[in-house]
Amino acid sequence: MNINMTIIGQAIWFALFVFFCMKFVWPPISRALEERKQKIAEGLSAADRAERDLELAQEKATANLKEAKEKAAEIIDQANRRANQIVEEAKDAARTEGERLVAKAQSEIDQEVNQAREQLRKEVAVLALSGAEKVLGGEVNQDAHKQMLEQLAAEL
Amino acid sequence: MAGSNAQDYIKHHLGNLTYGELPAGYVRECDGRDTQTLTESTWTFACNGNEAKDMGFMAFHVDSLAWSGGLGIIMCLLFWMGARKATAGVPSGFLNFVETIIEFIDTQVRDSFHGKSKLVAPLSLVIFCWVFLMNLMDLIPVDFVPGTFSWIMTSFFGWTAQEAYFKIVPSTDPNITLSMSFSVMLLVIFFTIKAKGVGGFVGTLTLHPFEASNPVLKALLMPVNLLLETIGLLAKPVSLGLRLFGNMYAGEFVFIMLAAMMGTWQFIGAWPWAVFHILVITLQAFIFMVLTIVYLSMAVEDH
């Protein structure tokens, strides 16, 4: 248990080891730890950012979907309205066409009726004339009785 | 095993392998050798405790220095290997271990030392790991290494078994522990001067604990303060070094006693004591480190 130069030798060892650790051990390891800490922090913040981005994208997608749905509904609505309109127009056209055709037919019928009536009237007049001729046995002066015959024909 | 009885055995186990200078005219009386008078001063290995004492200050404890140096080199190499592999990426197995220790030390330093210094953290690392390794040698059964050393020296180098002193626990040598604690004291003084200047350092020694605003009274109190503060300054490293030495020496002593009393059956007592001692060696290394940090922190901070 003597105190001797060992004390100096040990101090030299001590200084050497402390110097070595100060130069070659502590700085690289603590730097690596610091860098890793930073890296992890960056990774975490990146994850946060990504999560936020995802949320935003989802919101956007939802909005887009909603808009598209609205647009589609509008288009369908419009198409429906247009279809109705077309049907209405077709109906109108058909109705007017029908009416026109009916009117045309009616006027033709009227015309024919009138023609037939005229014809008949003429024939009646001739018939009546010939009948009267036969009854009277004489000539009926056509010119003289024209007025009367026409009156007769008009009464038919 | 080396001594003829338990007392010799214990004495032998507590002696260091001492290499030092014997003065001219010294009479060497070694067991198993002829008495020899030195004609001139000689550097040699002490063959018994008396010679080691007579060598005085000009002597080295070769075993303590070799084991502490060897353990320190192993420690440095291990950490250096870890440092070379250090990356910011995913750490591998060994690097994980090194990082755990580094982070543990870093936490301790950050908690206690509030100044800025590149020295304190590596210093604490060296103190904790090195002291731990030196203490760890205590757990090797007491005769393994000294027995081997004795066998080699007697078989190949013609030594007597009595000369083959060998202590493998450097921290049971007060030279080792006091050397470290006084190195710490020098650092404390250095830190104080660096933080407060030479005047500030002198001030810490002379202006406390008795303070006075009157200049005359102040001058009168200075010698008293100087005495008290010098005692305080020296008490720190002495207590620091002797605490570690005392704990380790006592632990080692118990192992040696058990070996001396029970021989081959020593493990019955030594095993439980070793288990308990694991706690002591770790705790002492930790205490040495924490107190070093605290002393350095006190040196830097204002009261």
Please explain how this structure is put together.
The complex is a heterodimer of chains A (156) and B (303). Chain A contains 2 helices and no strands. Chain A has 156 residues and is an all-alpha fold. Chain A has one domain (38-155). In chain A, helix 1 (6-136) packs across helix 2. The radius of gyration of chain A is 61 Å and the shape is rod-shaped. Chain B has a domain at 62-139 and 168-300. Chain B is mainly alpha-helical and 303 residues long. The model of chain B has no long low-confidence stretch (mean pLDDT 89). In chain B, a hairpin with a 7-residue loop joins strand 2 and strand 3 (36-37). The longest helix of chain B has 48 residues, at 215-262. The chains are: A mainly alpha (156), B mainly alpha (303). At the A-B interface, helix 1 of A face strand 5, helix 3, helix 4, helix 5 and helix 7 of B. Chain A: Keywords: ATP synthesis, Cell inner membrane, Cell membrane, CF(0), Coiled coil, Hydrogen ion transport, Ion transport, Membrane, Transmembrane, Transmembrane helix, Transport. Chain A: The chain crosses the membrane at residues 6-26. Chain A: It is a single-pass membrane protein. Chain A: This is ATP synthase subunit b.
Short descriptors:
heterodimer, A: 156 residues, mainly alpha, 0% strand, rod-shaped, B: 303 residues, three-stranded antiparallel β-sheet, two-stranded antiparallel sheet, globular, coiled coil (chain A), CF(0) (chain A), proton-transporting ATP synthase activity, rotational mechanism (chain A)
